[in-house]
Amino acid sequence: MATADDHWPETLNRVTAALDFELTDTKIGAATTKPSFAMRTFAPSDLSALPALVATAVHAGLEIDRLIAAPGPGAFDAQARTVRLALAEALNMEPPGATRSPFVTGYKTAYRLELARVIWKAIADAPVRRLEELARARLV
Question: What gap in Å lies between CA 42 and CA 75, rounded to an integer?
């Protein structure tokens, strides 16, 4: 029997598929022969074509990603943080200007799935209200 929340896992997969990842100019870690750069998550610049709740979910996803990426002990979700770090490492390993490696594509997919799982975990008890709270935290 279907429930009112059956659509959320698929919706969140679509939301995370809209997100993309790139390296920033911020160097991280110790100085080595090849510097590592921080990774940022971003959404398409124009969310106006999306339904309001989906746009809210995109902002909530960006907020969850910020929480996962936050430094320090007691990570928001250790498993998701590990997958995010693996993606950042894969992006750092690519030569600048090179074609996208299938490994990076795989790491992006893995992180998108983890991000959808963590978002669902964060909103499962009251999806609409929790998404709005997360999006509001991001937009403030």
Answer: 21
**Contact present, 81 and 75 (Cβ < 8 Å):** yes
| 30: Cβ contacts below 8 Å, ≥ 6 apart | none
- Calpha distance 129→102 (Å, rounded): 37
Quickly count helices (H) and strands (E) in the chain. Answer: 5, 2
Task: Give the pLDDT confidence of 66-76 residue by residue, as tens digits.
Answer: 999 988 776 68
Query: What is d(CA 38, CA 49) in angstroms, rounded to the nearest whole number?
Result: 30
Q: Which residues make beta-bridge pairs with 41?
A: 21
Contacts 24+ apart (CB under 8 A), 29-34: 34/92
This prediction's pTM: 0.85
Report residue 43's pLDDT band, with 50, 70 and 90 as the boundaries: very high
pLDDT tens-digit map of 83-114: 999 999 999 998 877 788 899 999 999 999 99
